[in-house]
Amino acid sequence: MKRGERIYAYIQQGSEAWPGDQVTGRIGFDAQQIAAALDILRNNVSKELNELHRQGKIVKFLGRPVLYFDKACLESALGVELGEGACQFDDVEAISQSKAPAEPENPFARLIGADRSLKRQVEQAKAAILYPPDGLHTLIVGQTGVGKTLFAHMMFEYGKTMHRFAEDAPFVTFNCADYYNNPQLLISHVFGYVKGAFTGAEQSKAGLVEEADGGVLFLDEIHRLPPEGQEMIFYFMDTGTFNRLGETRRSRQAKVLIIGATTEDPDSVLTKTFVRRIPNIMKIPPLAERSSGEKLDIIKLMFQDEAQRVKKPIRVGVETIKALVGSIGSGNVGQLKSNIKLLCAQAFLSGIDSPEGIEVDFKMLPQQIRNGLLTLSANRQALAEVTKALGSDSCIIVPPGPEFQLTDADSGVEPFNLYQVVEAKVDLLKGEGISSDLIKQILATDVNIYVRNLYNKKHSVNMTTRERLLKIVDASLVDFAEHVALYVQKRMNSSYHDRFLYAFSLHLSAFLKRVKSKDVPHKELEGAVPQDSLCLEVAQEIGSLIEKHYHIEVPRVEIEYIALLLESSQEDDLDDRVVIVVATHGQSTATSMVEVAQRLFGTTDVSVLAVDMPLEVRPQAVLDKMTAMLKSMHCLKGVLILADMGSLCNLGPSLEKSIEVPVRTIDMVSTPLILEAMRKAELAGMDLDGLYDSLVSFHGYEARDVTKDEELAKVTDDGRVVVTICSTGQGTALKLKSLVEDILRGAGQALPVIPVGLVKLEERLQEIAEGHRIVAAVGVKKPAMRIPFIPLEAIIDGAGEAALLEIVTGSRGTARPRQGSRVVQNLCAESLQKFLTYLNPEKVLPLLMEFDQRLEAGRAEPLANPLRIRLLVHCGCALERCVMRKPLHYGGNPAELDRRKVQQLQKAAELFSEKLHLTLAADEYYFMAEMI
Question: Residues in domain PTS EIIA type-4 (predicted)?
């Protein structure tokens, strides 16, 4: 019986024997209890329990500890059906509640402050919706960005919940400011018009009032309605009748609840007659007047929304949240939301290669938000409330929404590390299967952008470059860097002293640390700078200065780094670039997208134009505007239009004819597409066709299946291949690929191994199978295709290694001896590389494997691979502790341990005394005996 089947049988038997009168509260069996009863490791029990729960065989009761109960037995005991799939509850009573008819959800329950600062407004809103017979017309007053539109939507949703509106009732929005300078057009839009009512009215058209019949008409900026429009609205409120523009009799009827919104004082901007017709006027307070707790809740909610979008945890420092709270001003919730979106987008771009998540750091905040920290500090009561609510640690917002505290707040990290920029990118691009030449081109571009944005004079008004550097690096290093910067300025006859000084100082500090730790940078950077360039020549001279000053050797790859810094620090030539035009439908969509993209880059150097096309504007007018803008610019290298849809995608040929330069168009514009276009436009040598070709297949920054055709080119003569499967085709699949290749090589079976992801898994396998024979699949999911499958756990446990070799060779007994397990060796080596500081892992590992072999020989039954790995890593760390004379102290009672196990460990460890002259402390043996 398999492990999972044993665990399920145990739960099933225990559930059947559970007394019927005790099926209350939290019932069932926890992982520790099952592990002890079945003699299975607790982590393995937890894994199987999660799988059984996912399959819908058992029910999970939340709490500490988590309890599990057989689903069928529970259904029988309670006389209910829990349905298919996974089920989890707080207790048995919660099951009865979940099966009771659900009460309609109150939309206002989701509104932050509904039971606090907005309690009176919520009560007003509910009364306005429920007041017989058809509710009360309402006016919402508040500053820009306080949430007036959101409040109106919640009133409408509440009306549907209470059955005041039908489920398909309309909610029609109209901004009265759109036509404020044309009263006739505004009134015709609200009430409609008949044919011939005015010039151009070729046919009758219904207005918004008719469209909103049976629902809500939300009039935003209602103070922009002209007096005659207000008169028609209040007459409609009184009688429920109206007439279209051009009609003389008010014979039309509609049942509409009017909700208006304004930022102004109603008594000042609306007629008294109109105000008297609105019985329910409510004021939404500005965000600055709401409690600190509400402000924090709103900020956390906004970060949760962004975490959900980027599908990564977002780490936010306490000082960052305090600054956001203190920066809340006239922009209210709307401005706060824009600020947080921008910060998260900037953090996403900075941490795009990080799988762990992104970090919104205080240092990336614009000055006006940073000043919020000072503003909050001036209010001692508010500061105390926020500090008490936040604590002292960073806050992690994870995609599903909940937040928790993190105690290992980052500190003392230098703001610039060119090695990290290059090496993280190299690892990512190599994993994508990109060629070395293209990697070098991308690296050159990324370093270029990174250095250009590192030093921004606009944010250094109050501090010189030297003062900024002295906060990070030693004065002697800054002195030397200033000497080099002056040399470069004279040698290259250029005036980029400050930018180069800042970048070079920080990079030199990182380089000296690498020399000290003997950490060699990536070789892939070599060749990224043209070999005949002046930058490379000057970089070699700087290398000589460093060698002379610090008495160290500067490797060739370091010269390439310095050359990249020199290239990246030069001034831009805007005349030699492709001009990017972002064109979208809407009042300000393109403008907003371009503004976000430029602020993310922290620069407006790249020539990017925004062209907005309101829905009432003709395409010819947009073309004329675009032509005029481009004729006033240098765009000899061409124009790239990034459009959203429709007529804007067809302007290219006409524009090309007008301005007499080449034009290319890409549709479905998005902010990531604009960012990528700006990034690639930074390469002055990239022409229009090259830019277009590189973007036309761009689909965003998400991870993709990186299986490349080159893998298929490595197949053997008989076409046999092995595939590894994980979620993305990267990460685990690539690591697993390395393990499987090692296993096969050790057995003389050098078959190619191809990593694939779960996305379109079957299609990818069919594609591979068309020209090749898949002999086995190893990974996290069994494919539908009929091929031998070995789970990832089996490879780690050791059984999968023998099974794989049996499949590949077609015979039994070809597996290597257990002691030579490649998986154990590889995983131990990887862990020891991380944990050992003084001992050489490569020297220690063979001794540990011999220790493992001796221990196995003295035991009646072998250890599972995961336990072997854990034991060997502990033993390796114990050897280092022995060298450092810092042994662990066992807190338990040694007398309770199995003495035979301790003796087996001591006997196997004799080889350390023989070959290393090291003797482990007795407490180390106690820890290891407890493990096995």
Answer: 577-723
